[in-house]
Amino acid sequence: MAGSLGMAWSTAVVAFVAAVPLWRYTTNAITIAHEGGHAVFGWLFGTTVKHVKIFHAGAGEMLPGRENAVSKFVSLVAGYLGPSIIGFAGVQLLVHDFHPRVVLLLSLVFLAGVLIMVRNLFGVFVILSVGAVLWVVAMRSTEPVQLVFAYVWVWFLLMGGARQVPELFWAIHGGDETTDAGQLQGQTLIGDVVWLLFFWVLSLGALVYGGALLLRHAG
Q: Taking each helix axis from N to C terminus, what angle separates 23-44 and 69-95, rounded to the nearest 10 degrees?
């Protein structure tokens, strides 16, 4: 089910508004994908997750339990790349003509997995709120509405994935050694600025390439 080129561009504009001017209101949705990326990808490689917490203003925390060198590395890398990975996976589903409901339902599965690990009330509230919107659109709306929303959703994840990286720059600039990049520096001896550029290049690459795929498919 493909949309029109005009729809693809229009949904990109809507997603841009959500990811940039309205960032202070939408940042927690990206935080879910960020902390969920830490938790889910770390768990897949052997990390036990003690808890995930989502705080106000886009802050979050994933506290690991038992982990190995590989799972710790994968978990740290997957945080800043989490929104871009999820968004790009949604792009692949849409351009291969999966029903847009599939994109929304798989996003709900991801949210449910993160919800199990969340241990603070604000985090539960944010995840349930985002999940409620996805569920209503997936189960109670028409196919055209589902398609438009799925496009906005994957655009937003791709843009939000890139939007969060400048905040890492300011954290590093401020001397915060507890950032994901700082922890990767301690594990790999590769400078935190290099990891910052790594996250920046990959998130922008996912946005540019994923966006081009959406526009080409719609056109």
A: 120
pLDDT in tens, 61-73: 999 999 999 999 9
Q: What is the pLDDT of residues 66-95, one digit of tens each?
A: 999 999 999 999 999 999 999 999 999 999
Cβ–Cβ under 8 Å, residues 156 and 26? yes
Are 93 and 102 within 8 A, CB to CB? yes
Q: What are phi and psi for residue 118, nearest 5 degrees?
A: -75, 140
- Which residue is associated with the tokens 């949904």? 11
Q: 143-163 and 121-140 helices cross at what angle (nearest 10)?
A: 150
The CA angle 102-88-218, to the nearest 5 degrees, is: 75
The whole-model pTM stands at: 0.94
Q: What is the DSSP letter of 47?
A: P
